[in-house]
Amino acid sequence: MPDVRGHLAALLTLASLCPSCTSPARPARGRGGSGDSGSPNAPFVCAGDRCVQRYPRLPDDGEWTCSDMGGAAVCSGGDAPAGLPFNSPDRAWMCGQRRRPDWAKIDHERVCVDLAPDFPDGAARGWRCHYTTDEGVTRVCDRDATAHVIGDACDQRAPCLDGLRCIAGRCTPEPPSPSCVIDGDCESGACRFGSCWRGPT
Predict the structure, then answer these.
(1) Pick from 15, 23, 88, 165: most CB atoms within 10 A?
(2) How far, in Å, CA of 78 to CA of 57, rounded?
(3) What pLDDT shows up at residue 93?
């Protein structure tokens, strides 16, 4: 008779090891913007008005090119990671297939949007962020009181960024339909926050 308990014990041991082998180059993901080396995600390290996050949250363990627009993170790419047995998605991101214009072949490329990425103090207001790739993907945020972001107060005299609508006095994004990186990806309108946007209606 097979040793059922022995098989179960072996499976449980393998399952407990899996989280440590999904992404050895990056800490596990979390929603907070700061912490220590044991926290769910990498902290921001600040010097003056600049804060740097060496291991920002990404859509998954694939290869991504990212930018920040008005306090939202937009990433494109998603090539499978080499040599990793799993590709763990972060459910905070909303993803879709990138559009394929007649003049370009973009096989399997995805576009992902996170409307609430990490910030040094947990809020988008007062920061202007971008990504660098000099030593892996890094999120860099600079203090900027003039930066316009999701959630800004708005009215007829203080309009929102393109791609946002003024609803109840706050700049609010449309429900994302991630599919573009540049305006040329859209049959009409412009690419804003990773989605094709046709302007105010």
Answers:
(1) 23
(2) 14
(3) 96
